[in-house]
């Protein structure tokens, strides 16, 4: 059973993958925050 | 029936499905399922490619007062189970522990507590690997990635094989 992977500093592909996913997650989080704020403002009138 | 917070479900024009709920303390949480989060990397893993969703949850609005609120985990569990029931037991929810704010250890504890809730552990399988990631300053970041899928997923063995192959491929890539 695979338990751990250790990425070496020279493994550009893997590092790029994790950076890419982190960036996408941050974009989604920002989008959800903006949506939430818009909704709250709408309901406060 | 166990109590949970009322929630709403939305789908935006990028096909991201999100659910959000407000806690009694005024914090707003969002749970999301993103069909494209990993799609660029999964073309060689047909099961994950067709059934995989990026999964995550965030506290998008923080109240001034925060307390340990068990209803948060219960509500997230209900949302996940609802999503799986709606989309079918074949879905695979891929996740990464967020580490950009360096709070992944605390987040990991909360996630584990939530996964151990009876409502989740009875219905959902969790499979994860630890990841050691080198940082620019020479340090190593300890995080993890994994997936959740229904115990009723008839392709759960294939999901496990593909995920393992994908993780191994990351380790040997250049």
Name the descriptors.
A: 45 residues; mainly alpha; elongated; B: Aminopeptidase; seven-stranded mixed beta sheet; 5 helices; 7 strands; globular
Description of the structure:
The complex is a heterodimer of chains A (45) and B (174). Chain A has 45 residues and is mostly helical. In chain A, 73% of the residues lie in helices and 7% in strands. Chain A is built from one helix and one strand; from the N terminus they run E-H. The longest helix of chain A is centred in the middle third of the chain and has 33 residues, at 12-44. The mean pLDDT of chain A is 87. Chain B is α+β, with helices and mostly antiparallel strands and 174 residues long. Chain B has a single domain (8-172), classed as Aminopeptidase (3-Layer(aba) Sandwich). Chain B has helices at 46-51, 70-87, 104-115, 118-121, 156-172, and strands at residues 8-11, 17-22, 28-34, 52-61, 92-96, 124-134, 140-150. Chain B has a seven-stranded mixed β-sheet, sandwiched between helices. The mean pLDDT of chain B is 88. The A-B interface holds A 2-15, 17-18, 20-22, 24-26, 28-29, 31-33, 35-37, 40 and B 10, 12, 16, 18, 20, 28, 30, 32, 34, 37-38, 40-41, 54, 56, 58, 60-61, 96, 98-100, 129-134, 164, 167-168, 170-171, 173-174.
